[in-house]
From TrEMBL, chain A:
It comes from Methylobacterium trifolii. Binds 2 magnesium ions per tetramer. Its cofactor is Mg(2+). The keyword Calcium does not apply. GO terms for molecular function: ligase activity. It comes from the Bacteria. Belongs to the class-II aminoacyl-tRNA synthetase family. Phe-tRNA synthetase alpha subunit type 1 subfamily. Gene3D superfamilies: Bira Bifunctional Protein, Domain 2. Mg(2+) binds at residue 260. Its EC number is 6.1.1.20. This is Phenylalanine--tRNA ligase alpha subunit. Residues 121-348 form the Aminoacyl-transfer RNA synthetases class-II family profile domain. The keyword Nucleotide-binding applies. Tetramer of two alpha and two beta subunits.
TrEMBL record, chain B:
Binds 2 magnesium ions per tetramer. Its cofactor is Mg(2+). It is found in: Cytoplasm. InterPro entries: aa-tRNA-synth_II/BPL/LPL (IPR045864), B3/B4_tRNA-bd (IPR005146), DNA-bd_dom_put_sf (IPR009061), Fdx_antiC-bd (IPR005121), Fdx_antiC-bd_sf (IPR036690), NA-bd_OB-fold (IPR012340), Phe-tRNA-ligase_IIc_bsu (IPR045060), Phe-tRNA-ligase_IIc_bsu_bact (IPR004532). It comes from Methylobacterium trifolii. Keywords: Aminoacyl-tRNA synthetase, ATP-binding, Cytoplasm, Ligase, Magnesium, Metal-binding, Nucleotide-binding, Protein biosynthesis, RNA-binding, tRNA-binding. GO terms for molecular function: ligase activity. Mg(2+) binds at residues 456, 462, 465-466. This is Phenylalanine--tRNA ligase beta subunit.
Length: 360, 806
């Protein structure tokens, strides 16, 4: 056994025996440090003859490499052991509850959600959104819409009045979104395609009527607007809104002062155990009113009924929300009960779109 | 409008079944609201003879009867009726029958030990009367074994239609029959109306005492006297029909007027001639005149109301209701029959003012057929002669039947243009003519004359409706509305997008969207800056829903408190909706508001293992407001936060958000204690409100490219400064001063500590800020950093009086 062998066995033993990073470093310094045993041997190479160096050089360098290698391996092993020890000490109780994220607690009211759904559907058919004030003149809410003063048709609307002004004129809370039809036709050139979602008011209160409710009105002024295309628009809307492949609709002639001809539309459905399903069944459920814009209304907007034509329709937003999402009673819509909002509301990021589907 | 099937068949010759008739009515716009078919419901009830009625062995008040229901197999029935007796004819229901008056289904029972196989019935049990004292006691000769409903004439289904206000012609059975006949399911019967040959003049004069301008109020008034009538009960068939549609038979004369009202849509009035003093005059009522009417109420009249008066005063309110004093009763022998025309608008207005709803008003305010006014008088006279006897005078007629028919120049192409359906001219002509229109001419345009009973048909569109409603809207095939080519363009306006985005943004902060009433209590409105006279409802549905809201906050505050009262104290609610400053369209704004209560913070309140309970404060509201502005893409660089806000906020714990002294966009903070008290609110409530209409509009940019990103190659560094400053100095001023000290290098400033107390002079506070410096050209030297620090300290000191904390 040469002195080199002895040194190597000694150093490797020290490496193996080092129990932590500091001890290992001490071994490294003692062997490979400036004055380390291996460093000292390497220094001797300079004063050797070429023959000697040729013989001893590989031996000493080999020793150094093996010691270095051993040091590295030992360091890795020590680090691994230290990590293991740390990991076994670092533990959290993952069953502890986290705070619920705000975006999962927040809710969008069904009315807003349904307006977004309706808007997405009609936008696809080229409708923009028009709006108007809740406080309307009698002229725009009634007269311009062909409700003559004193006509019994006005009584179909239980109107809220504001206090009369100094000239005795009384403004009203709009009883329907239809005055925005007038505003639109008076400010925009045909062709027109708008929907008009908004709040409406009638002096009425029971399980299915509240003094405030929501409507969406549609208005198309277009050469291609007739009952046939009106039917198509409404059928497309109902299919898309109720998310069914087919709906059966029934158009019944009816009367609205501002349309002629006028119709009410029923949709076929089944009712089983309080659940309403569309696209099946034998029951009829009234969901909207519609018709061709009355010639007098067109005239009141400065349009010639012989050359301009259009159709309009109105849907109760609260009503279609109830039908689609199953709320049995309208009144809680406006009571802001957090239990109701939590249950019937929608998550903030459930934004309806046609691309992704109205509902998830 | 109600009528019975047999009544309809008086006017319509048809083989169609009831369900076909009902479907057809709905299909042509006379929506069937309901059909009541008593015969179907009462089918099991048969006429039966009580053979024996023995005392029940175990009960004093019960009898054991043997009943023959017509099949020769007597059944045993235990009966508790006091009038049950052997030999009587009554109505029997076998086991399994549903009893409408008791809402039970019969079964074979044992009553006090005696078996009973069915029931003998009272009218009340059948749901056709109110006689609870005993079982039906039918006259001898009633056919045993026959269904009772058939025998009693109850086998006449009652149809109710939901009549739209434009169809006065269908306030009559005849008009409904005409509409049905037009569909081809039957033929309209034209019963000839025989003119009445009156003897002599009507002795009662009629004076239309109206100014020429008022003539429209009563274009026609016709009157006839029938002497020597006997006014007993009307015949059973008439009573049955009137009862079936919900009217109470009174006496023959009154029943006749009601009958003609429904049969022909022609309201009439009858006066007892003996009770009328002198001639009749039609005039405006005098202010304060009164009439005790047939509804038993005394009505106070005014000059807008037209009346029929005699020497005794007002006898009848025109077109609405008659007076009690001149009404017909059993003692009436001479009757005056009135048939008149009244102004629909005036009748509607008077009826509303008086609050009287009658079948006459219902028809007159919609418009009765003027051409039938005199025929109606004759029809009523004939009925009086038939049912009550007597001899008529000639009619006295004041005024004249107005000409109401109009001619419409009608191009057939209108049907295709408006309805999108191609129908043959032959079909369209038949439809119009069967509805009573007269079609003249040939070719592409025809002249269509409207019938006198259709005041609603004014123009071409109305004719299109007539044609397509009879053809059936289901025959019109849906046809796509052409779409614009290419990809759809954005359609929402800025405020529409912001309204939608605001809702999503606020919901993402854990807030629940509420939709609260647009009207709030007056006192609430006043507290929140509203309550103006122009925004008060004249007819609120409830006193606490009286004023248009000036702000969303009061509604949400009350909602939060309601939730708290129910055991949910940590409500976090928002609303995005309309508020009203004036009654003009410009006075209406869209606002976004959130209210947080108690532990309803952004992180979720309440107790949690990871930290104590959190309570909302003004900063919770501020955070919501700023998050909303950021979500809406509003640049907040120029945003100022000024201390204080509207009067409903705590003056020391609120702030106003603005872009300048005149461009306030919203406010936030804790609710003022006085408002808390006034609204009876408990706990801690904070709110913010942002007026979405007040936000700056986005600048139009020629390109969507974002500004170039300039990244520095040099390490940023941070320096901390702790300043001592007077307590009243806002931290915001301090930060602003520091920023102004070195605009080029300072990348941001955070306030990381706020301290008052030991070590700090009374009345002062310590504000610690971390200033982030971002070198742009080269790494800063120590000397340069020192120089920047010195400038910051000097500038902050100069602007705020702050000194570096020792």
């Amino acid at each position: 056994m040469t002195d080199l062998d002895t040194l190597e066995r000694d150093l490797l033993a020290q490496v193996a025996g080092a129990s932590d990073e500091a001890a290992l470093d001490a071994v490294r310094v003692s062997a490979l440090g400036k004055k380390g045993s291996v460093s000292d041997l390497l220094k001797t190479l300079g004063s050797m003859t070429p023959e000697e160096r040729k013989a001893r050089g590989p031996l000493i360098n080999g020793l150094r490499d093996r010691v270095q290698g051993a040091l590295g391996e030992r360091r890795e092993a020590l680090a691994e052991a230290a990590l293991e020890a740390r990991l076994s000490a670092e533990r959290v109780d993952v069953t502890l509850p986290v705070r619920e994220a705000p975006e999962t607690r927040g809710r969008i009211h069904p009315i807003s959600q349904v307006i977004d759904e309706v808007t997405a559907i009609f936008a696809d058919m080229g409708f923009s959104v028009a709006e108007g004030p809740d406080i309307e003149t009698d002229e725009l809410n009634f007269t311009a819409l062909n409700f003559p003063p004193g006509h019994p048709a006005r009584e179909m609307h239980d109107t809220f009045f504001l206090a009369p002004d100094h000239l005795g004129r009384r403004k009203v809370l709009r009883t329907h979104t239809s005055p925005v039809q007038i505003r639109t036709m008076r400010s925009q050139e045909p062709p027109i395609r708008v929907i008009i979602p908004g709040r409406t008011y009638r002096h009425d209160s029971d399980q299915t009527h509240t003094p405030m409710f929501h409507q969406v009105e549609g208005l198309v002024i277009d050469k291609a607007a007739n009952i046939a295309s009106l039917k198509w628009v409404l059928e497309e809307f109902c299919k898309a809104f109720f998310e069914v492949d087919a709906v059966k609709m029934r158009f019944r002639p009816s009367f609205f002062p501002f349309t002629e001809p006028s119709a009410e539309v029923d949709i076929q459905c089944s009712r089983k155990g309080g659940e309403i399903r569309f696209g099946e069944g034998e029951d009829w459920l009234e969901i909207l009113g519609c018709g061709m814009v009355h010639p007098n209304v067109l005239r009141n907007c400065g349009l010639d009924p012989d050359s301009v034509q259009g159709f309009a329709f109105g849907v109760g937003l609260d009503r279609i929300a109830m039908l689609k999402y199953g709320m049995p009673d309208l009144r809680p819509f406006f009571e802001a009960d957090v239990r109701w909002l939590d249950h019937y509301g929608f998550r903030p990021l459930d934004v309806p779109s046609l691309v992704g589907g109205l509902t998830g | 409008m109600k009528f019975t099937l047999s009544w309809l068949k008086d006017h319509l010759d048809t083989e169609a079944a009831l369900d076909v008739i009902a479907e057809t009515l709905t299909r042509i716009g006379l929506e069937v609201e309901g059909i009541e078919d008593k015969a179907a419901a009462l089918r099991p009830y048969v006429i039966a003879r009580v053979l024996t009625a023995e005392q029940h062995p175990n009960a004093d008040r019960l009898r054991v009867c043997s009943v023959d229901a017509g099949d020769g197999q007597p059944v045993q029935v235990v009966c508790g009726a006091p009038n049950a007796r052997a030999g009587m004819l009554s109505v029997f229901a076998p086991p399994g029958t549903y009893v409408p008056g008791k809402a039970i289904t019969l079964s074979v029972g044992t009553i006090r030990g005696v078996e009973s196989r069915g029931m003998l019935c009272s009218g009340a049990e059948l749901g056709i009367g109110e006689d609870h004292d005993g079982i039906l006691d039918l006259p001898e000769g009633s056919p045993v074994g026959t269904p009772y409903a058939v025998h009693a004439g109850l086998d006449d289904p009652v149809i109710e239609i939901n009549l739209t206000p434009n169809r006065p012609d269908c306030t009559s059975v005849h008009g409904i029959a005409r509409d049905l006949a037009a569909t081809g399911i039957g033929t309209l019967k034209h019963a000839p109306l025989l003119p009445v040959h009156g003897e002599g003049l009507c002795p009662v004069t009629v004076d239309l005492a109206l100014e020429p301008a008022d003539r429209v109020l009563c274009p026609l008034f016709a009157l006839r006297l029938v002497r020597g009538v006997t006014n007993g009960p009307s015949p059973a068939w008439m009573q049955a029909r009137l009862r079936a549609i919900g009217l109470r038979p009174i006496n023959a004369l009154v029943d006749i007027t009601n009958y003609v009202t429904f049969d022909r849509g022609r309201p009439l009035h009858v006066f007892d001639a003996a009770k009328v003093g002198g001639g009749l005059s039609v005039r405006r009522a005098q202010e304060g005149e009164t009439l005790k009417a047939l509804d038993g109420r005394t009505h106070t009249l005014n000059a807008d109301i037209v009346v029929i008066a005699d020497a005794n005063g007002v006898e009848s309110i025109a077109g609405i209701i008659g007076g009690e004093a001149s009404g017909c009763d059993a003692g009436t022998t001479d009757v005056l029959i009135e048939s008149a025309l009244w102004d629909p608008a005036n009748i509607a207005q008077s009826g509303r003012r008086l609050g009287v709803v009658t079948d006459a008003r219902y028809r007159f305010e919609r418009g009765v057929d003027p051409a039938f006014a005199l025929s109606g008088l004759d029809l009523a006279t004939c009925l009086v002669l038939d049912l009550c006897g007597g001899s008529p005078t000639q009619a006295v007629v004041a005024g004249a039947v107005p000409e109401t028919e109009r001619t419409i120049d009608f191009p057939w192409t209108e049907v295709r243009r408006l309805a999108g359906i191609e129908l043959s001219r032959a079909e369209m002509t038949v439809t119009l003519e069967s509805l009573g229109f007269h079609v003249a001419g040939s070719g592409d345009r025809v002249q269509v004359r409207t019938p006198s009973w259709r005041p609603d048909v004014e123009g071409k569109a109305d004719l299109v409706e007539e044609i397509v409603r009879i053809a059936g809207l289901d025959r019109i095939e849906a046809k796509p509305l052409p779409r614009a080519g290419g990809v759809g363009k954005p359609l929402l306006t800025v405020i529409q997008k912001r309204t939608r985005a605001a809702k999503r943004a606020l919901a993402s902060r854990g807030l629940m969207e509420a939709v609260t009433w647009s009207f709030i209590p007056h006192d609430d409105a006043v507290l929140f800056g509203g309550g103006g006279a122009d925004l008060v409802l004249a007819n609120p549905i409830a006193s606490e829903l009286s004023d248009m809201r000036p702000s969303l906050v009061p509604g949400l505050l009350r909602a939060a408190q309601r939730n708290a009262d129910r055991g949910f104290p940590d409500a976090a609610l928002f609303e995005v909706g309309q508020c009203f400053a004036t009654d003009a369209p410009e006075g209406q704004t869209i606002r976004a508001t959130a209210v947080r209560r108690g532990g309803g913070t952004h992180l979720g309140g309440g107790r949690h293992w990871d930290g104590g309970p959190q309570v909302v404060d003004a900063f919770a509201a501020k955070a919501d407001a700023l998050a909303l502005l950021t979500a809406l893409g509003i640049p907040t660089g120029g945003l100022q936060v000024a201390a204080g806000g509207p009067a409903w906020l705590h003056p020391g714990r609120s702030g106003t958000l603005r872009f300048g002294p005149r461009t306030e966009i919203g406010w936030f903070g804790e609710v003022h204690p006085r408002v808390m008290k006034a609204l009876d609110l408990k706990g801690t409530l904070v709110a913010f409100e942002i007026v979405l209409d007040a936000l700056p509009l986005p600048k139009h940019k020629p390109t969507k490219a974002k500004p170039a990103l300039a990244l520095s190659d040099f390490q940023p560094l941070s320096r901390d400064f702790a300043f001592v400053v007077e307590r009243a100095v806002p931290a915001g001023d301090l930060v602003k001063a520091a920023l102004n000290a070195e605009r080029k290098l300072i990348a941001g400033i955070d306030v990381f500590d706020l301290y008052e107390g030991a070590g700090i002079p009374e009345g002062s506070k310590s504000v610690a800020i971390a200033v982030r410096l971002q070198p742009v050209e080269r790494t800063l030297t120590d000397a340069e950093i020192e120089a920047v620090s010195a400038r910051i300290v000097a500038e902050v000191g100069r602007k705020t009086g702050a000194t570096l904390r020792a």
